[in-house]
Amino acid sequence: MKPPLYYVALGDSLTEGYGVAAEDSFVAAYSRLMESALGRQAVVLNAGVTGDTTSDILHRMSTNVDLRQAIRQADLISLTAGGNDLLGAAREFLLNRDPQVLKAALRLFAINIRRIFESIGHIRSASGGDGNKPLVMRILNLYNPFPIIEETEYWIERFNREWLPYETPYVRVVHVYEAFQYRTDDLISEDMVHPNALGYRTMAEAAHALGYAGLEDETKA
Questions:
Q1: Separation CA 39–CA 2 (nearest Å)
Q2: How many structural domains is the chain composed of?
Q3: CATH at 214
Q4: Is 78 labeled as catalytic in the residue annotation?
Q5: Does residue 118 lie within any of the structural domains?
Q6: What range defines the domain where residue 209 resides?
Q7: Does residue 96 fall inside a structural domain?
Q8: CB 83 within 8 A of CB 155
Q9: Is 119 a known active-site residue?
Q10: Which member of 98, 130, 186, 191 is catalytic?
Q11: Of residues 12, 52, 85, 194, which has the active-site annotation?
Q12: What is the pLDDT along the chain (221 residues), one digit of tens a residue?
């Protein structure tokens, strides 16, 4: 019998699966794909919370004992983050047209993602963690739900660029931006922000396409 695969999904509404049935969420779709690819049952914790910013995600990682234990044991972690950081700043920007608001949001985002990675590292190296288990992680970058607004392209690109230094053979950025480009009419729901069922499935397929390096050897157990 192959061992189960422990999958922890961190993030915001895109992880929680806002707007669709649970079985149509990104996490559910991705879990099915990984089970098929690896021949292992996925034991899933969906820790997505609608509305969470990177600050909120970091706070939960720091204070939620059950979440910390799940991260410590995880074989695979996925993360959706930054959309609410940017949306909050964009709303303020539209009121006063002060680009410093967006610059400040980008700086805080960069600080927070560094702290998120540091926190994951500390959690996994603590007592009870498996020191031999690599961190296999999929970071889903931001898509552009508002392509008709010229400024959005620039700032989404700036936010997405912040993830790139964290890539390793096992930590990979899922380029959701490219998967959604020119397809927003098909992939975005009626609220004009969140994906529909096809959009969530597209996210899952983009993550799946990166493969499962770091997990495939475990299937031989």
A1: 8
A2: 1
A3: 3.40.50.1110
A4: no
A5: yes
A6: 5-82+112-220
A7: no
A8: no
A9: no
A10: 191
A11: 194
A12: 789 999 999 999 999 999 999 999 999 999 999 999 999 999 999 999 999 999 999 999 999 999 999 999 999 999 999 999 999 999 898 888 899 999 999 999 999 999 999 999 999 998 665 556 889 999 999 999 988 777 899 999 999 999 999 999 999 999 999 999 999 999 999 999 999 999 999 999 999 999 999 997 654 44
